[in-house]
């Protein structure tokens, strides 16, 4: 009788444990799936602006600056960020460049400009440790560049994760 009771208690404990962990895994999986979907939407939105000309202070297809591109793209997925690249750089978690993922932000201090952080890009792909990012430049408008380019390596300050 004691043995049957022990087996019954063991079986019930196993069932409770099994299904309580399954719920946590499902919630975590759902959370990661939602985050992944937001990142995918973000990149699709940002890439849709490729070719838009540069416009200081711009946030539309008529003209867009770097922080305008990032701010507008995040806003369209329901995430509010400050309007300037410098203010954006205070949000999120700082990460090493080697740890960046799609959706992370890269911040730069372009030496010919004054004032510390003055440029931002959005990571769109990481392929064989090469980081690609979309941003708006004064000379070419909204384009995708690589962190393997000497210019961007030299001007890089930090990476942040906001999603």
UniProtKB/TrEMBL annotation:
Give the superkingdom in one word.
Bacteria
Give yes or no: UniProt keyword Thylakoid: no
Gene3D superfamilies per the record?
A: endopeptidase domain like (from Nostoc punctiforme) (3.90.1720.10)
UniProt cross-references to InterPro entries, sorted A to Z: Murein_DD/LD_carboxypeptidase, NLP_P60_dom, Papain-like_cys_pep_sf
Reply yes or no: does the keyword Mitochondrion apply: no
What Pfam families has UniProt attached to this entry?
A: NLPC_P60
Domain NlpC/P60: from-to ranges: 36-163
- Which residues does UniProt assign to the signal peptide? none
Keyword list, A-Z: Hydrolase, Protease, Signal, Thiol protease
- Homology family: Belongs to the peptidase C40 family.
| Name this protein carries in UniProt | C40 family peptidase
Annotated source species: Tenacibaculum tangerinum
């Amino acid at each position: 009788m004691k043995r049957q009771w022990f087996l019954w208690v063991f079986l019930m404990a196993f069932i409770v444990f099994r299904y309580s962990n399954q719920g946590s895994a499902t919630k975590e999986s759902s959370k990661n799936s939602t985050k992944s979907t937001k990142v995918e939407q973000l990149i699709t939105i940002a890439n849709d602006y490729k070719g838009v000309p540069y416009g200081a202070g711009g946030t539309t297809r008529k003209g867009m600056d770097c922080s305008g591109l990032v701010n507008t793209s995040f806003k369209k997925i329901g995430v509010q960020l400050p309007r300037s690249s410098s203010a954006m750089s205070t949000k999120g978690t700082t990460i090493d460049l080697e740890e960046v993922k799609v959706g992370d932000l890269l911040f730069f201090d372009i030496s010919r400009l004054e004032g510390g952080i003055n440029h931002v890009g959005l990571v769109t792909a990481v392929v064989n440790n090469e980081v690609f990012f979309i941003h708006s430049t004064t000379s070419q408008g909204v384009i995708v560049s690589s962190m393997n380019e000497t210019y961007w390596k030299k001007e890089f300050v930090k990476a942040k994760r906001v999603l």
